[in-house]
């Protein structure tokens, strides 16, 4: 597997020798000082370019970076038509040696007013870029809830929990699982993240999909959270749903008390969930 220095040399050499590329930024986990380095970290690279057409007319130019295992071009994919833009183009490249580069071409004329906090300038031929603060995860830290957001998260959790219950009662496991692992999981993750924010003075990131929960939650709570990931058995999914509700309330009561919000507990919905489960036996 090529080293980090070898990969960065490839990235910078390509930019230096191509007049169309005027600057290079690296962002993401490799410039995050709080993240432990490992072999699966992507190289998230942005090339600031004069134009796009000459690049995307012939994609073979990216062969410079090595032998690929697979590549994805999301801006050409029929799966994501609504996400296409005319001011940028992305190459997601997984190489056979295990390295991966997510390379985005960004037109100079559409540079953002504010750069991601996880950004480091690798090359700037024309002094196009502002002086960036040292790379940090401040854009990704848990932020304090507002009363409206807290109420909305609580309402969504209980509302969609009834969808899960309906699916389990009917034996429609794919539907029930989609509701549980979609909206219900997202609201639980949000509430737990707020409780972590309380304990850390809102100074940390929980990572994508809560991947840092294992480092930020106490071991017992983390193990309970893992138990909410169930198999396809209906009874086990009922157990997971009620455990999710328990964890949601444990975290929610802490947040509510700290900010003076109303309790996130919805007694009527909780009772209805119990009734539906009992009637399905």
Brief descriptors of the model:
6 strands; alpha+beta; 281 residues; Four Helix Bundle (Hemerythrin (Met), subunit A); 43% helix; six-stranded mixed β-sheet; Beta Polymerase, domain 2; single chain; 8 helices
How big is the Rg? 23 Å
Low-confidence sequence ranges? none
Instruction: Please identify the structural class as seen in this structure.
Output: alpha+beta
CATH class of the largest domain: Mainly Alpha
| Largest sheet properties | 6 strands, mixed
- Number of structurally distinct domains: 2
N-end to C-end Cα span: 54 Å
Order of helices and strands: HEEHEEEEHHHHHH
Task: Provide the residue-averaged pLDDT.
Answer: 94
Question: Mind explaining what this structure looks like?
Answer:
With 281 residues, the chain is an alpha+beta fold. The chain folds into two domains: 4-139, Beta Polymerase, domain 2; 142-279, Up-down Bundle (Four Helix Bundle (Hemerythrin (Met), subunit A)). Helices cover 43% and strands 15% of the residues. Strands 3-4-5-2-1-6 form a six-stranded mixed β-sheet, with helices on one face. A hairpin with a 4-residue loop joins strand 4 and strand 5. Helix 3 packs antiparallel against helix 7 and helix 3 (147-170) runs parallel beside helix 8 (267-279). The longest helix has 27 residues, at 173-199.
